[in-house]
Every structure is written in structure tokens, then in C-alpha cells.
Specification:
Elements lengths: L19 H14 L4 E5 L8 E9 L5 E9 L8 E4 L20 E6 L29 H17 L20 H16 L5 H9 L2 H10 L13 H16 L1
Helix pairs in contact: 1-2, 3-4, 3-6, 4-5, 5-6
């Protein structure tokens, strides 16, 4: 049987359309100009032993109500940093419980599909959710979702318990080679996925090898008792680099 060889095909990196940046800049500007209207309601049954949980309601970009869980840690000095859970491609909301509420941060988990903490209409393929308004970038459902996500950030920053600040976001992958980029995201998912675990325990679960987890942390000069929220961005980058070196040995 004669073998067949093929020349490898070099795929070109995707190029965003020329109007990509202006389009989303216009969306951000529109979100900044929207009126900020919100209220908070407390139902004691929502509370956790470690957090007071309120329902934070605000007016969405379409004039309809939105709602989310706002968890305030009881044992943390306020104001404190806050974490905003943004929705994924579905319509579900991240529930606030002992695994998702941060120990030393405020937590805001939002529902962008109605005036309730959880969507009141379960997703089904027949709803055509992913293609709503796809005829035009101006009417596509994810433009509206982006607007409401940006508006939710403003609502969160306006809460008196939140220690908010304007930050500059720099794309992390540009600082890392491709192999380290992949590990950066795997490591952060593992570290923040179980927020009460030490990084050593999180990496042990990732590699199924406690000795390897400890070795990577030592090489990155990170204490084995450290938790994900203790690390700076530079430490996460170094952890990704050392992980690449360790797994290749």
C-alpha cells in the first residue's frame, strides 16, 4: 500500500473586521451614557453563614429590569474589592453558595434575561437565543448583553461596600509564549475554581501529583500555602512559565 503525503497547510490567524474596535467602542460609550438606576432588596433566606446576600436590581439598557445576587462577606473590612460573574453563552446564572462566594471579596452574579435572580424562561433550542437579531450587528443579542454587562459593572462599582477603581486591562497572552498561554488559563481556572483550596491542593488535583504541584510552586517562588487570590498577575505569569518547564522535563 502506497503512502500518501500532504504538505502542511499554514492557517492564517483570524483578522477582526476593520470596524471591530469602533463598533465595540461605540457600545462602551453607550453603556457609559445610560442612566444608573438600581435598588437593593434583602431576603434573609438568601443569606449564607459567611455572607449577607441581597438582590441587586437595576434598569437594563432596554428599559427592562435586571437582577442579580450581591454577596457581602461578614468577616471582611469594608469597602472591599468585588467580583462580577458574567454570564456565558447560555441563559443560566451562577448561583451564590459556599463554593462561588469569595471569602474576602464582594460577589455579584447577574441575570441578564429578566427581573429575577435566575432566568424565568429556561433555554431551549427552539427559542433561537443564539441567533436573536443576527441580521444586523446593531440588533444582535450579544450587543445587548455586552451593554448590560458594562452597565452591571457600573452598578456594582456604585455600591458603597465596593472598593472600586479604574484599571487598565492589558491582554495577558501577549506576555507569554503559546505553551505558557494555555497553562496560564488552565492554572487560573484550577486555582479560582475551588476558592477555599490552597494553590498546592488545586494544582495537585490538576496534575494528580502532589510532588509536581509543590515543585512548580517552589520554582515560581510561591508559598505552598498561597491561595489563588493571593497572587499578583506577575506571579501568575511566572507560575505559567515554570509549569511549562516542569511538564517538559
Amino acid at each position: 500500500m502506497t503512502g500518501v503525503t500532504h504538505e502542511p497547510v499554514l492557517l492564517k490567524p483570524p483578522q477582526p473586521p476593520v470596524d471591530f474596535e469602533p463598533f465595540w467602542r461605540a457600545v462602551a460609550d453607550e453603556a457609559d451614557a445610560l442612566p444608573l438606576q438600581f435598588e437593593r432588596v434583602h431576603f434573609p433566606g438568601d443569606d449564607l453563614p459567611t455572607h449577607r446576600v441581597e438582590r441587586l436590581r437595576w434598569l437594563g439598557c432596554d428599559g427592562r429590569g435586571r437582577e442579580g445576587w450581591f454577596a457581602i462577606p461578614r468577616a471582611t473590612t469594608l469597602p472591599a474589592p468585588a467580583v462580577l460573574y458574567l454570564p456565558g453563552y447560555g441563559v443560566s446564572t451562577v448561583p451564590i453558595n459556599e463554593n462561588t462566594a469569595f471569602e474576602h471579596c464582594l460577589t455579584f452574579s447577574i441575570n441578564l434575561h429578566g427581573y429575577a435572580v435566575v432566568p424565568n424562561v429556561p433555554y431551549t433550542p427552539e427559542l433561537g437565543y443564539f441567533t436573536q437579531g443576527i441580521e444586523s450587528p446593531q440588533t444582535y443579542v450579544y450587543r445587548r448583553i455586552m451593554l448590560d454587562c458594562l452597565l452591571a459593572m457600573r452598578v456594582l462599582a456604585a455600591q458603597p461596600e465596593v472598593d472600586s477603581a479604574i484599571v487598565r486591562l492589558t491582554p495577558v497572552p501577549d506576555r507569554l509564549p503559546p505553551d505558557a498561554q494555555k497553562w496560564f488559563f488552565r492554572l487560573t481556572r484550577a486555582g479560582f475554581g475551588k476558592r477555599r483550596k490552597t494553590l498546592r491542593n488545586a494544582l495537585t488535583a490538576l496534575f494528580d501529583d502532589a510532588d509536581r504541584a509543590s515543585a512548580i510552586l517552589r520554582r515560581a517562588n510561591i508559598p505552598i500555602s498561597a491561595r489563588a487570590e493571593d497572587l499578583s498577575l506577575q506571579q501568575w505569569l511566572e507560575l505559567a512559565r515554570e509549569t511549562v518547564q516542569t511538564v517538559q522535563e
